[in-house]
Amino acid sequence: MRALILSAGLGTRLRSEKPKVMHTLLGKPMLWYVVEAIKALKPESIALVVGYKEEEIKAYFGEDFYYYHQVNPKGGTADAVISALDYWRDYEGYLLVVNGDAPLIRHQTLRNMQRYLHLVEEYEGIKLSALLLSAQLPDPTGYGRVIKDGEGNVIRVVEEREASTEEKLIREVNGGAYMFYCPHLFETIFHIKPSPTSGELYLTEVFSLMHERGYRVRSFMAEDPTEILGVNTRWELAIAENVIRLGIIQEWAKKGNTIHQPESVWIEPDVVLEGDVEVYPDAMLRGNTRVGRGAVIGKGCVIEDSIIEEEGVVEPYSVIRNSHIKAKAVVGPFAHIRDRSLIGKESHIGNFVEVKKSLIGKGVKAKHLAYIGDASIEEDANIGAGVVFANFDGRRKHQSYVGRGAFIGSNSLIIAPVRLGAYSFVAGGSVVNKDVEDGDLAISRPRLRILKGKGIKKLLEPQEEK
Hints:
- Helices cover 20% and strands 28% of the residues.
- By secondary structure, the protein is an alpha/beta fold.
């Protein structure tokens, strides 16, 4: 089997300059979901029909696909298939045709359709000319209706705008995914006439043409009607995204992870939860994120392209991007870890601490209101409240090193480049711009003057009116 995805649509109703199929759901273009569903079938090849801003599609999906240009994106679905004629004209097998704006279609459904084709041929001795995906909807408004004969064969599909009153009562609707036997498709597709209302060439017209020639066409009912939902508006985009999001969360829950208040949690397709993970409301897990067994992700956290190892705890409202949190470390609340930082095993990065491009060793504690940038901090060091690593001189970023067991007192300023040795001690409020050797004490403070009685005098002085 070969596959062809129709992805040249303008997306006029989305009111966007972006190609329709490149609008994202959970961080992925809607076309990505269609491609992934088809890949699971392991077809011989996959081709995409592209048009408007096709360079964006090609740049994202790369060279693993064949691309065919549709000159007139408003020409209709049959025109799109004809645009890729060289791809399937001489092929003797089946061609899967799927709309690129159908991100909810499931690979299992496509596989079941493929299996059905083989079963019909094996047990009934019939080679179907086409098999179309359909669904029963309580309200079929807006969808093409599937018309069948007394034996259950599809004789045509009629679009809503061209359906009669009686035909509009039919609840079985076209799902926009088809498997065509290529020789029969080639025989009929050029006989399609433009729609009298829109002027488009509808691919669904081949079903009536096949029926006229005595060929067999059948429908395959989707197990879940949401699979056939296409995306034509921003609201439909939001609905599709929500369906996918809840499906992902449901799968992780089935695999032994607790998702509190799942209607508020965001987990993207490439995220991995390793089991016994607990995710609290309003959390966002994005990109290539992996969360180890027994880890806890607190309320309102954002974790992107990062690793949280087993039993790690990310306290509420923390942000972690492109970083690695080792086992049993605690981050947050309200912490910010970014730019390839590594937080060591059993370390504690506390509230309102920012760590940028730094290596934090095992058992390090930085619990309050600190900025650690471009630093290497060895195990068991202690970073006090208000400590700032001044890593930028206005032109370049500089590195700092803090040795094992070192102590940096509250409100100290560490001016890079600087090296603080193992078990060195920086007194609170110090400004350090020189290396401190192992075991040494660094203190830098102006002399404190205390003037007897001056405090109360200042307080009792009359205040000037402003």
